[in-house]
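User: Can you model how FE2/S2 (inorganic) cluster sits in this protein?
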Amino acid sequence: MASITLNINNASHTIDVDPQMPLLWAIRDFVGLKGTKYGCGMSQCGACTVLLDGNPIRSCSYPVSAAAGKKIATIEGLSEKTDHPVQQAWIELQVPQCGYCQSGQIMSAVALLKKNPSPTDAQIDAAMQGNLCRCGTYPRIKTAIHRAAEIQKSQKA
Amino acid sequence: MHTRQSTISRRNFIRLTGITGAGFMIGLSVAEGQGIEEVVNMSGVGESFGLTPFIIIEKSGAITIFNTKPEIGQGTFQSIPSLIAEELNLTLDMVTIKQTGGEKEFGPDQFVGGSSSVRTTYTKYRTVGAAAREMLVTAAAKMWEVPVAECTVENGKVHHLASERSAKFSELAEAASKLEVPKSPKLKDPKDFILLGKSIPRPDVPLKSSGKAVFGIDIDVPGMVYASVERCPVFGGRLVSFDDAATKKVKGVQQVISCERLFGKYRTEGVAVIADNYWAAVQGRKALKVKWDFQGKENFNSAGYAQQLRELAKTEGVVDKSIGDFDKAFAEAPNKVEAFYETPVVSHSPIEPMNCVAHWKEGNKVEIWTSTQVPGRIMGSFPKEFGIKEEDLKVNVLFNGGGFGRRLYPDYVHEAVYLSKKISKPVKLIWSREDDTQQGPFRPMTFSAMKGALGTDGKLTAFQHKVIAPSLNAARDDKYDKTKTDGTMTEGISEQAYRIPNMKNLYVWADIHIPICAWRAVTSTTLAFSHECFIDELAVKAKKDPMDFRINMLDAKSDTMRVLRKLREVSNWDKPLQKGWGRGVAQWEFFAGLAANVVEVSQNGEGVKIEKVYSVIDLGTVVNPDTVVGQVQGAVVMAITAAIKNGITFENGRTAQSNFHNNPALRINEVPPIEVFVLAEGGDKIKGVGEPGLPPLAPALCNAIFAATGKRIRTLPFNINKI
Ligand code: FES
Ligand code: FES
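Assistant: Here's the modeled complex, given as structure tokens:
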């Protein structure tokens, strides 16, 4: 066990955990933020995607100790009113079905649009390949990312 | 539908609704033993008649609508409450939607499966809403002393335009609750609908776009411990003993106990590691040393079993359906075609793994929080399984992170309750993805021996589909009668609209000891493949266009004809494709509904690329067209996975796959454009949404591959990159 301080969505949380524990379980069961999901535990499905200093990582395969001192962003920190451009687009296009994969999908999409404000279909495919959706919402995810890019641009204009 | 006045005890009211303020409540009641449902008024305080409240209007103004259909991604959180809200001219943002937990009072509809949610409740729940509306209107009309016909309902109020008066539902609720329930409330004219038939945004979408939606796995209760269970890797094995010395050294591990799983007719044992947190439970489990007795089942493997099925195919089997004289017609026919088709076992793999929080409290009271498709079944069977009173069981149903049929089976819920009882603490049980992939239940494979004969005019004169497969009924119950066909294993093969003069369909039962169960669209998912690919083979033999060949076998008025004509038009079937491309068609009708697909593929190196999918689904009446489009796209994606990805195989008695790396699902870069057309021409006929898009995908794809490459695929899965 070790005392580890995590900075999640700009708030700091000190927890006493096995340093090898994946960040996912620390976020869910020790910090109590349940939006980040467990789907596979081996970097295959993307349900656990969070941003670490702005980059998407699979928190199920990332030791909590390695995240100490870095900026962690989870779905809960995206916006207060569910109005981040990606969230707006997700709602407009009615993307989620069961919804379980969608926190991960949204975090990956947020990271993509930060780096690349107008991604092509191929760039979306490349960035989103790590996120499984068993419900098959992929066609809408793709449309929604294009839409989010538009919303993002109109907000900057 | 009948209506009746009734009352409910205050205690029962609170138990069912969680609402402490009294209110106007209207619902359906199942008259005991008769299965008749009637609309009842359960306001006030008094005797309980076993009632089912669906709408509660409180004096405070709050309106609650109860949803009996767990949300698994199929949209019931919007579609079902809308049936009631529509008749009250309420939009869903004006009401609180509460999920029911299998309570007897909420009736027999508390499950989701078979694409049945809307088609079985459409009129029933509208009637509940309409009765409430009429009572509220009558109360207002009386108060204002105006004719009922002059009153309208809008925005949670009853209005009298002429005198410019209006009153809120909550102000009228008390007076309304004292009225007779109308005998046959008038349903709204569809042209006045504000919700039904419209693409209304689903209220769960913002929750699911912000991490706020609560799934079973997200539940925490005070004092809760975590469990991870080691189960025998070989199906049919027994627990001999375990050594937990190393496990107990893992920090956070509290105890290690044996545990049972009930699935269908199987009762198996496992070893549960109980810990302060889930990670500790998983680490502790890794350190366990368990001795199993494999019972000789360690020799089972998929290749050997497939060989057994091929041998069994030589036996006659039992008749599923017979029309005309197949044997004679086939023997005498000038042109015959025979083919053998094989399909794999597949997993459901909902993205939320199985999990459950169970709390066995003092006084043998039990509370469950879980993602499940069957709260009604849990409420119906658990009290007996665990020897508790029904009123002492509470089931809280959360959003399901996918179901696909897997969550029709509450084996994981049983495990959690069993553990909580044993350790007298609330337990959160989480199956790992490996548990989910390896322990089943799975969709069974089906093999199909096909025979068809054509007359000299190229018309299909004799047809046979013989299914060789394990039985879903036998997996449930040892008493399954093997002298009869298992209808779940011959699903749809005798129900296609094609007019064929001589047909004899057969079923050959094959035993299996591996847990099998329904999958999204059940056995149609494999039988449509063999059936509709073989129809294509016959079309080729008859030198007919596959679309024409099908259409020529259909009654002009059949639903299938309407669907294929629409599909022909929207897919531009009659326009030639570019060189190296091919298109294929398939349709499927079964208990859940009817859909048809056209798939276009192009040659791509040694394989093919899926260029485009056109899907037509026939519904009759639709509640939310946008939801339907999403469901059909999802069904197509799932069907492509099942056709071209690994599937599940068994080696040495164990599942060979373990997680998404070796049991992959389609990813975003592999998904073709999918265009969905919803046929909803109104009327009484309502068909299912969630499943029908799935069965006709694999055959349309393989028929397209034949058109593009001349290669006939008769075995799933196949490698799309190497045809
Ligand atoms: S849970 Fe982390 S990638 Fe699947
Ligand atoms: S919405 Fe269900 S897995 Fe993606």
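A couple of observations from the model: The longest strand of chain A covers residues 2-8. Chain A touches chain B through 59 residues (CB under 8 Å).
User: Helpful, thanks.
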